[in-house]
Structures are given as C-alpha cells and as structure tokens.
Amino acid sequence: MRPSGIRALLLLILAAGIVVGCMHSHVINVTVTNTSAEKVSAIVIDYPEATFGINSLDPGKSFEYQIKPTATGTLKIQFSNAHGVNRVSAGPVMHKNDEGSLRINVSQDGAVSEIHIN
To answer: For 26-50, what is each residue's pLDDT tens digit?
Structure first.
C-alpha cells in the first residue's frame, strides 16, 4: 500500500472512531440495597416506559442495574417484605436522556431513593 493509501485508511479509521465516540448512551446506574435485617422479595422497579425486577434480596445485599429513561415520569418501587406485606413507594421524577446514578434503599417498611443526575 502506498503512503497516501495508508494515510487515507488512517483518516477513515480516525473518523469512524470519532463518530462512534459521539454516540453517547444516556443511562442511570441503579443500585438497590436491602437495608433491613430480613429478606425482601418480588421487587419491581417501574420507571417511564419500562420495568425491571429482582426476585429477592437478602439483608445487606445490593443489586446493580442500568436503565435508560425514554420518557418523563415518576419511578415506582414495589416489593414484598419478609411477612408478605406488599410495599409501594414513589421515587424521583425521571426525564428522557437523564444520566447519573440512583440509589434505592429498601427496608421492611418501604423504600427511600436518592438520584444524582449529571
């Protein structure tokens, strides 16, 4: 390959890297922690236009997940405590393309969430 062909190839690779680098995915890193002394189960995190769930979470354990908000709405946290009582807690309002972190602490009585948007 001639030097001009090598330069053209390098420029093409560089341009492709710039385009890929500009494709930024807006996600929120979610950490759900059971802060109680007993297991919680059937955890459902409902956020604008999507949902994810966790079968159960032992005391002191955490679960990490990434979400991508595609609309504006309020996060809802549902779960069953160790005695089978269903708990529902409202979380923060999320907006399309928010990114940052969300910490959700669940106890036997409910959930508390704290969001940090970049």
So the answer is: 899 999 999 999 999 999 999 999 9
pTM, rounded to two decimals? 0.80
CB 100 within 8 A of CB 75: no
The whole-angstrom separation of Cα 113 and Cα 105 is 6
Among candidate residues 72, 71, 107, the one with its CA nearest the CA of residue 89: 107
Query: What is the average per-residue pLDDT within 83-94?
Result: 95
pLDDT the model gives residue 39: 97
Instruction: Name the residue with tokens 């007993």.
Output: 38
Find, among 16, 14, 49, 43, the residue nearest to 31 by Cα: 43
